[in-house]
């Protein structure tokens, strides 16, 4: 079927915009700089479509993060918490589906032409994205009271995790096996969806301005006390645990269902692949799941450099790493 006239015009404008943007190439991938952020080329049409057309519902929950900060875990937790009345935990979809198949990646869905699938999702919808706060459309930030949960992780562990991930999903791109190159890009604020500090600060500030709309959590705190994070998420999204549920140890059951060891060892996450635009091995989302793995990859000097850069960027914000 021929596209409608305004769809065609939109496509032309988008092509013109994309061809005018600064570009950089990593192996076989192209990245485009738009609104002070480097985007993987494949996702940018999805981001632009979201900026133009995404209409949130007030019951929506958006899971935001910088990649490799615990998105998979947050997807599993939010889904298990919010769907606990629908799915008994012992027969939960998370036992047979990768968390990324339970919670849609919004720009990926839009870029893959699955906008209507997102629209057809029943409320309350849970959707994930890595878009910086400053790039979210007014329909989300100003004109909606939908909720956003952001998970932040020590940037040194993010970087190490990103490097392992790249090597796992793109083994053919040999230059990425140089950790030092990625490290330098990170320090220059030049990695995808970044700079990392802007991605984090945008949501942190929003969480201070609008604490009922934006919940800011840390991966390391979640590791230390997952049950408290589960209760905080449930409270934030408006479905706190009842006394009866607490006595029945539902919180503990959710913590266990979504734990790294439990998810990593499920058949569905050991084999198989997932992804709307490209297929990635499901196992690539479960590596070590700990805090401080950077110590095995960076010298004290390299770590100090990142910490100093980040402290400088965070100065006066009230946020520390
Ligand atoms: P490591 O590579 O350091 O192990 P994302 O989901 O944002 O892509 O982040 C992936 C990181 O989260 C990986 O970190 C992965 O192992 C870790 N992770 C995945 N599931 C987890 C879970 N249930 N609990 C804790 N960490 C988890």
UniProtKB/TrEMBL annotation:
The protein's Enzyme Commission number: 2.8.2.-
Enzyme class: transferase
Sulfotransferase domain location: 59-318
UniProt KW keywords: Transferase
Alphabetized SUPFAM superfamilies for the sequence: P-loop containing nucleoside triphosphate hydrolases
Domain of life of the native organism: Eukaryota
GO molecular function, one term: sulfotransferase activity
Signal sequence bounds: none
Family: Belongs to the sulfotransferase 1 family.
Name listed for the protein in its UniProt record: Sulfotransferase
